[in-house]
Design brief:
The structure is a single chain. The chain is mainly alpha-helical. The protein has one domain. 57% of the residues lie in helices and 7% in strands. It is built from five helices and two strands. It has a two-stranded antiparallel ribbon with strand order 1-2. α2 packs antiparallel against α5. It is elongated, with a radius of gyration of 19 Å. 16% of the residues are buried. This is HK97 gp10 family phage protein.
């Protein structure tokens, strides 16, 4: 999958020895942990609608089937109603006499704010997961 834990060669070697299914399971577990501070910051950047707060409530994580990873953003399926997230992020073009809406970049700002924290969490979580694998292997 191409994950490299910088500076921890033994972890890289152990990770490469795992099957692709095991790597994917580890990656998704780690990505979900990394996503938590990002989701928290996205919700903080949104000024929730006082009546419903639908967009803020719909921000979350979804596993991508057949792909290796997760999707973070406004969920629009089932009970989630975050269908207007792209309009608040990017704005809209001029629409005749109605004008346009300027974007707030709530998502982009959250990514910029949490980038270094997320990188630290990712490295630490990969190390924790692989350390757990080593501990389980020692017991068997």
């Amino acid at each position: 999958m191409g994950v490299v834990l910088s500076g921890v060669k033994i972890f890289d070697e152990i990770y490469e020895e795992l099957t692709i299914a095991q790597q994917k399971g580890i990656d998704i577990k780690v990505f979900k942990k990394v996503a938590k501070p990002l989701i928290k910051q996205i919700r903080k950047n949104l000024r929730p609608n006082k009546r419903t707060g639908n967009l803020s409530k719909s921000i979350g994580v979804k596993n991508l089937k057949k792909k290796e990873g997760i999707r973070i953003g406004a969920r629009v399926f089932g009970r989630w109603k975050g269908y207007h997230g792209h309009l608040l992020e990017n704005g809209s073009k001029k629409r005749g006499k109605y004008g346009n809406m300027n974007g707030t970049s709530f998502f982009s700002k959250a990514i910029d704010t949490t980038a270094t924290e997320s990188e630290k969490i990712m490295t630490q979580e990969y190390a924790n997961v692989i350390t757990d694998i080593i501990q389980k292997a020692k017991k068997n």
